[in-house]
Amino acid sequence: HDHEVALINSSHAVNEFWFGEPLSVYQRSRLPADDARELAAPTSHRLESIPFISDAPGHAHVHYLKVVTKTIRHYSSRESDTLVYKYTVHSNKYSAPEGTPPSIDFKYDLSPISIVVQQQRMPAYKFVTSTCAIIGGVFTVIGIIESVLHVTSERLLKKQI
């Protein structure tokens, strides 16, 4: 049996890896732009399409995953929350103990911390107030700059006379 175990090759590639149910097209369309881009990015699926090659017989692979849940609460209370799982991964390759068949292990740690994103609409009065504050700030800065330039030019003119 020892010779058979030594011949096992644990090379592999992960074609698809999800926590929870994959999001529907509609759920993806309702995600905030940053989350939709991140979910579509190759770095979001860190194990997919990466070959893990065993260089020698008896090599085992272990993938350590840290999983965090992210809940997205939508504007409308009629829509259910969207639950997205995000993970980081660190993979190691090691020689399996003699007589033990090599393995491919996925060890995951579900984080007790969760990210909650609350989508909210800005009321009209807040928008108007913020816009007025920005415009007022711009006029104040322009007034300060104009005052400094005016005082400086008066002093220079007095020195020349």
Automatic annotation (TrEMBL):
Source organism, top-level taxon: Eukaryota
For the Endoplasmic reticulum vesicle transporter C-terminal domain, which residue ranges apply?
A: 7-145
* Cellular component terms per the entry's GO annotation: COPII-coated ER to Golgi transport vesicle; endoplasmic reticulum
Which keywords does this Swiss-Prot/TrEMBL entry list? Membrane, Transmembrane, Transmembrane helix
Q: Where is the signal peptide?
A: none
Q: Which residues cross the membrane?
A: 127-149
InterPro entries according to UniProt: Erv, Erv_C
Q: What is this protein called?
A: Endoplasmic reticulum vesicle transporter C-terminal domain-containing protein
**What lineage is this protein's organism placed in?**
Eukaryota, Sar, Alveolata, Ciliophora, Intramacronucleata
